[in-house]
Amino acid sequence: VEETLVLVKPDGVARNLTGEILRRIEAKGYSLVDIRMIEPDRALLAEHYAEHEGKPFYEPLVEFMLSGPVVALRVAGNRVIEGFRALAGTTDPTTAAPGTIRGDFGRDWGLAVQQNLVHGSDSPESAARELALWFSA
Ligand code: ATP
Q: Which residues catalyse the reaction (predicted)?
């Protein structure tokens, strides 16, 4: 069965939305396989966000992800990668559809980075790489 990595980003944890986000994942019928609260270091984030290195939002993104604990979820289900991204909504929380996590709880705070509450892997290759990264010893 397919697995994905979901991260509740520091804004989601700080706003006490971890339970609500997990509730939506479980209500959809996906299964929680593993869960971990992590304070990532720069090395972990550099690997996680390698594809964005050099982009204008890269440094603010890393600083944001260092700003507090992150909850990592290993989630399983048929087509869960695509399904979680649909639950999350589009990247920009201002225009993410109402009914999605980002659409219901996110907005533009006027900061350098989109604080959009969650991350979800975007392909089976990314999921395998990211799950190994966040759930390694
Ligand atoms: P994620 O990978 O976190 O699920 P995503 O796939 O929707 O989100 P990416 O394009 O992978 O978005 O960008 C990673 C993260 O960087 C986004 O979730 C957001 O926090 C931030 N980000 C992306 N694009 C921008 C932008 N143009 N301006 C500010 N922040 C951005």
A: 119 (pros-phosphohistidine intermediate)
Residues designated catalytic: 119
Rounded Cα distance between 123 and 125, Å, is: 5
116 in a known ligand binding site: yes
Pocket of ligand 1, candidates 57, 87, 117: which has the most ligand atoms within 8 Å of its Cβ, to mutate?
57
> What's the predicted TM-score (pTM) here?
0.96
CA of residue 68 to ligand 1 center, whole Å:
18
Q: Give the neighbor-by-neighbor strand order of the sheet with 3-8.
A: 31-38, 70-76, 3-8, 118-120
ipTM, interface predicted TM-score of the complex: 0.91
pLDDT reported for residue 79: 98
Contact residues of ligand 1, CB 6 A cut-off? 57, 61, 91, 113-114, 116, 119-120, 122
pLDDT, tens digit, 9 for 90 and up, residues 39-50: 999 999 999 999
